[in-house]
Design brief:
By secondary structure, the chain is an alpha+beta fold. It is about 35% helix and about 25% strand. This is RNA-binding protein KhpA.
Length: about 80
């Protein structure tokens, strides 16, 4: 799943080397924390959050086969 998130985000940003995905796994959920360069935040979030929503939609759909709920947090 980390590779999927990186594959989606890296072409969108100016500093792909700063893209980092960490995962935190609990009993019934997996939280992926996406970190990008501060100047690339607007590109990842998009106008009115449309890009972020699209990324989340793809990640949630890809993770729907797993037994755990998947969350994606976007931060600097």
């Amino acid at each position: 799943m980390k590779e999927l998130i990186e594959t989606i985000v890296k072409p969108l940003v100016d500093f792909p080397e700063d893209v980092r995905v960490d995962s935190i796994e609990d009993d019934n959920r997996i939280t992926y924390q996406l970190s990008v360069n501060k100047t690339d935040m607007g590109k990842v979030i998009g106008k009115q959050g449309r890009v972020a929503k699209a990324i989340r939609t793809v990640v949630y759909a890809a993770g729907s086969s797993q037994q755990k709920k998947i969350f994606l947090e976007i931060g600097e």
